[in-house]
Design goal:
Number of strands: 15
Number of domains: 2
Distance between the termini: 11 Å
Oligomer: single chain
CATH topology of the largest domain: Rossmann fold
Strand content: 15-25%
Shape: globular
Largest sheet: 7 strands, parallel
């Protein structure tokens, strides 16, 4: 129903379900937990149906973009909020959101100065009468804050990844933490996608402004099979170890190549993705004579079809938030060897399907791969049990309920 004074649509309030996603994994102190939705005084038993605007660059297709797409789909399916997206570039994110029937607005950043971009975003926010603005990258955080001032609309910032201070250059420290503190001054609420991230944010920003909500495990629909081994001329029975992600330093593709160089039991290795380190890695493979069993697939539109064919997914990152590729591996029932960094441990339940290795220990990483491949039947059983555990703890519905609780906890009902 609509109120005469505000014209805001109100729907009957429903008690938010208990969130099994967050209750079964280590959590932050009580101050971090999701607030309950406020109930209107003049609309008894009603709660606001929010208008939420996601702001994203849209120039890539990484973990943050995949999470955003899942959040938008899940929120629309849940039905308690209206969701739109404002993107700064055309790209795969825009195409996928349109394919799901999401209303999007693209403001091409290459056609605007920074000030012009801020002004265009400000006009769109005012035009759309949004209650909540949700950002996902540091550049968009700065743009959103400058576009919102001096309004009092709610700003939510999801931090998908944040390298430790020691891994940041001086320039990046200024950009990253400058954006975070600017948003904090505005009064933003922050979402850390892992326990490690949320604790670090809370130490700097205060517990009252930080919440922990994990990334959701995606559904993996059937897709056309493209034989990875046949593509590279490998034996159909050869085990394949894969790296899936951006070929950038933080993801550790150079370490993955070190692993490939040391493993000599007939395994094949494949890079799935692209990035600034690709040419350097290709030269290394050629100069070190690894091109027979190390190949580059490049960036692909649907990496899931290849992920399903891996015997082991290797995560050699120097830091992670809560990597979507890890949850996707669980959805595809693929075993994982990963350095124990960031929020990866949040998905560890003691199963041998996910092997955690001390950061940088290449010898132990290789040993873990050998251990998994030594007993494929037992590994398959372990992976199935681990995948079921991940589904029960990182399901999309509970993640959406947690985000809606944070959205509505920030909003004062005008009716």
């Amino acid at each position: 129903m609509f109120t005469a004074e505000t014209g805001v649509e109100c729907t009957r309030a429903r008690k938010l379900p208990e969130d099994p996603n967050l209750s079964r994994i280590p959590r932050l102190p009580a101050a971090h937990r999701q607030p309950t939705a406020p109930v209107s005084a003049s609309c008894p038993g009603a709660a606001l149906k929010l208008r939420v605007l996601h702001i994203a660059s849209g120039d890539g297709w990484g973990g943050a973009e995949r999470v955003l797409c899942l959040l938008v789909q899940g929120t629309l399916a849940e039905g308690r909020a209206e969701v739109e997206a404002l993107l700064l570039n055309e790209g795969q994110l825009a195409e996928r959101l349109r394919g799901h029937g999401v209303r999007i607005r693209v403001i091409p950043e290459e056609q605007h100065s920074f000030c012009g971009l801020v002004w265009a975003v400000r006009r769109w926010i005012r035009h759309g009468r949004f209650d909540v603005i949700h950002t996902h990258r540091y550049k968009e955080v700065i743009i959103a804050v400058l576009a919102l001032v001096p309004s009092l609309r709610r700003l939510i910032v999801t931090i998908h990844g944040l390298e430790p201070w020691s891994q940041l250059t001086c320039g990046r420290r200024l950009r990253v933490w400058g954006a975070i503190f600017l948003a904090r001054l505005y009064g933003a609420r922050f979402i850390g996608v892992s326990g490690e991230l949320a604790h670090r944010l809370a130490n700097r920003l205060g517990q009252a402004s930080v919440f922990r909500i994990p990334n959701p495990m995606p559904l993996v629909p059937p897709c056309k099979f493209i034989d990875l081994r046949a593509r590279f001329g490998w034996n159909p029975r050869q085990p394949v170890v894969g790296f899936l992600g951006r070929l950038e330093e933080v993801k550790g593709p150079d370490t993955f190549l070190d692993v490939a160089k040391r493993v000599t039991s007939g395994e094949c290795f494949v890079f799935i993705g692209s990035g600034s380190m690709e040419s350097h890695l290709v030269r290394r493979v050629q100069s070190e004579g690894l091109d027979r069993h190390v190949r580059f697939l490049g960036e692909v539109s649907n990496p899931i079809r290849y992920l399903r064919q891996l015997d082991v997914l290797a995560i050699t990152s120097r830091h992670e938030g809560l990597p979507m590729v890890l949850l996707e591996a669980a959805a595809c029932e693929v075993s994982v060897v990963a350095f124990d960094v960031g929020g990866i441990r949040d998905v560890f339940n003691g199963s041998r399907a996910l092997r955690l290795v001390p950061p940088g220990n290449v010898a132990e990483f290789c040993a873990a791969i050998h251990d998994i491949l030594a007993d494929p039947d037992e590994t398959r059983n372990e992976v199935r049990r681990w995948a079921e555990w991940v589904r029960s703890h990182f399901g999309l519905p509970s993640v959406i309920s947690s985000y809606l609780a944070v959205y509505r906890g920030d909003l004062k009902a005008p009716c």
